[in-house]
Amino acid sequence: MFEDRRRLIIIGLAIAIIVVVAVILWWIFRPQGQPQNQAGTTPQVETGSTINTFGLPPTPPERLEQEKKYPLGLKQLAMAFAERYGSYSTDEPKKNIQDLETQMTASLYKAESAKTVNTGATGFSGYSVKALAADLLSVKTDTASVLVKTQVTQTNGNGGTPNVYYRNLQLGFVKAGDQWLVNSVKWQ
Fold first, then answer.
1. 32, 51, 87, 114: which has the fewest C-beta neighbours closer than 10 Å?
2. pTM for the whole thing?
């Protein structure tokens, strides 16, 4: 009799563990439906409503029109480009240019690829660029100019202290379809 009771307790515990695991797995992998408000009901958005699903007013048409004209993200694009463009090492001196091919016009890529990299002394030398800020100098329908302020860290293989200095990089952009491409690069 004691064994039967013991067996029932073990079976009951095993079933309880299986149920708990199943509930936890269901909770983790349950399908996410429409967002619900605090009352537990799904908010409805009617045509012409002033509030969308997230409880925010719709974007004004003036802002949408301005965003079509203004090159959104151009500063961020310029900063990312400057960091990659200025960062290189003697181990792979043209790798930065190759990585940026899709972000440059064909003529700029050809010109940058043709440049000879003067490594100076023997041994390792590398440059790491961090973009600090970007200013839109001019923006037109299909051209733009951005000045990126950078911090350059030069490292030599001799284990000495890295040399840190600041430079500006002026980038000229042209619009190709919906994409902005770098057409000119000038360190200042």
1. 32
2. 0.62
